Amino acid sequence: MSEKEESRRGPIASAMAGAVSVGANMLGEKFTELKHNADSKKLKASANFPMIRLPEGYEIEKIAQGLTYPTSVAWDDRGNMYVAEAGGTFLDEENASARILRVDSNGTATEVVNLDGKIYPAISGMTWYNGAFYITHRDRELYGCVSRVTPDGEVTQILGGIVDSKSDHQPNDVRVGRDGRMYVCVGIGGNSGYMDENMIPFVLKAPDGHPTPAKDIVLTGYNIELPDFREGGKGTVLTGAFMPFGTATEPGQAVKGSNKAGGTILVFDPENAEATVQPYAWGFRNAIGIAWNRDNDMFVAVNGYDNAAGRPINDYHDGTYRVREGAWYGWPDFAANFSPVTDARFKPSSSAIPPTYKGRERVAKELHFLIDHEASGLEQPDTSLILGLHEVNSSPSKPDVAPEGWGDYANHLFVPEYGDFQWITNPMRDKFAGNRIARIETSGSGENTVHAFIQNEKVGPGSQQGELGEGIERPYDVKFGPDGAMYIVDFGSHRTSLKRIAEGHFPVEFDRGTGMVWRVTKMK
């Protein structure tokens, strides 16, 4: 599955926030709806798909459909286009095929490589480099991995052992920079610092999973008390930040950094990945996709906090950022706009926060810093690193930068917003967020404003408006092809389902055969 889905797991009924959170979210959602309508007035209906709005002078067409969980598009040296089907979503529960398909000019998708039994799903990222595909996925023990896949189906794992992937976030985008090195986006373990009740399926399968830092840090020692849901577990248990479920921490406790940390952009030599891997930047919650502009500036799209059980953070934004080598981007103690999460505006009702302890001493049920910043040599992130702020839960995913042929939009970053998971991501949400392609200027004088470029006439995926296949659904990957056109990989439709909770699964039903690839061209 697309890592985006994994990133959007969240609480069940017990995680619902209080009236203060409700009011703040309702106001934010009303503003977003007004902004969506304002953007719609600047966009024109597509001649091919009247439900879709985009700028005058551009057109959209569907070039492939009937795909199951597509996540990535790439081109070989001859200009042939390929799409990766993830093979599953959260924990391979959907029993779909992980494979790479060639998409011909007539829209026919032909299987080139079947990866069933060769990797553990899901494929989230794919790129072509030096005659082979490179993909991100997990292994059978749920460690995050990168593998090289030849067109004849030979699979060689070049990087493994990413422990944060034993959660709802796995490695995502994989791309090669102009320096010849490979860059991989890696999600953090969990939501906001703890392996909590949102991680039940993962903890039961991989109890050693936990978030990891890229550099040595010192903890403040705050623990949360949760029901012990492990097999045979009874009563409650304390869990600390950056620890496996059920492991408490103490104030001043040191945690070693890892060269394969989560919440990072990792970089390595693809010919010697294990020996050369290191964090390029860190402190992201769930880094999904990266891109470079013509000045070789790097940008990353990040899925921010869920207002979810464990350590619920009532954030207002998801972020797209300028990437500075070595920089820390604030997770788990700073919001998307780099304000401290301890600010009152980010606090849900106290009933949503579990009993909290500093070491073994009970303290107020509040949002506390989890890292001792001074002792760890960390400072509040620099706001100049913010490229643009999206609506919270809109889920900015795998972006790309427009080529010169795109006129006034050349060198702009185009970011697919996968969309929210409604009450799973935030139990108070009653409006859709995302489900569109956003545009952000990347020049040094850029305005840092997130503009709508492609969106449906009404907020939300087409299927939720009775128009499956006629509108944007769940865009996950945007790439500009050798022909200069924009290609959008649309994951397909799904919906929340309480029934799946009772069955012991994630409360989301994914629809096979609903994935699509769109092409957007600048009309002459």
What does this structure look like?
InterPro entries: 6-blade_b-propeller_TolB-like, Quinoprot_gluc/sorb_DH_b-prop. It comes from Pontibacter akesuensis. The protein is mainly beta. It has a single domain, classed as Neuraminidase (6 Propeller), CATH 2.120.10. Helix content is 9%, strand content 33%. The chain contains six helices and 34 strands. The chain has helices at 3-7, 19-42, 200-205, 273-276, 373-376, 498-502; strands at residues 44-45, 52-54, 58-67, 70-75, 81-85, 99-103, 109-114, 126-129, 132-138, 144-149, 155-162, 171-176, 182-186, 217-218, 222-227, 236-240, 254-255, 264-268, 278-282, 286-292, 298-303, 317-322, 356-358, 361-363, 386-391, 400-401, 413-417, 436-440, 451-456, 475-480, 486-490, 494-496, 508-510, 515-522. It has a six-stranded antiparallel β-sheet with strand order 1-2-29-28-27-26. Strands 3-34-31-30 form a four-stranded antiparallel β-sheet, with no helix packed on it. Strand 1 and strand 2 form a beta hairpin. The longest helix is centred in the first third of the chain and has 24 residues, at 19-42. The model is unreliable at 1-34 (pLDDT under 50).
